[in-house]
Amino acid sequence: MKSIKSWFPNFTILHVLALVLGFLPSLFFLLFLIGDGVAEIIDGKLGVVPILIMMLLTVSGYVLAWKRQKKGGIVMIAGGVIMGIYLLISGGFQGWQMALLFSLPFVLPGVLLMSPAKVHESK
Fold first, then answer.
1. How far apart, in Å, are the Cα atoms of 84 and each of 51, 90, 97, 107?
2. Average pLDDT, the chain
3. Which one, of 65, 66, 67, 97, lies nearest residue 84 by Cα?
């Protein structure tokens, strides 16, 4: 059986964990973008555009993390925090659960990607 190092030679165990944890919300939100977001835009509901842009930002951070872990982590954290703040402001403080539900799945893997382990960063 191969070790994790042979599958991901430039990643530490925390980075692999972050990529695994970031995969499911990224896939979910990407499918949400394709299925629900595009349909709402076609129907003329433009209120969904800001959250779609923030979702695209966070998912693009996840994709970037496969090549450049720290930069991808920064984008994931920034996108997750911006999305959380936006949902908190737009939903009032009663919407804090939704803000956490949408932001934490990206902030947590982003923080793990920022771990101080020595990783060969491709330039």
1. 10, 10, 10, 10
2. 81
3. 97
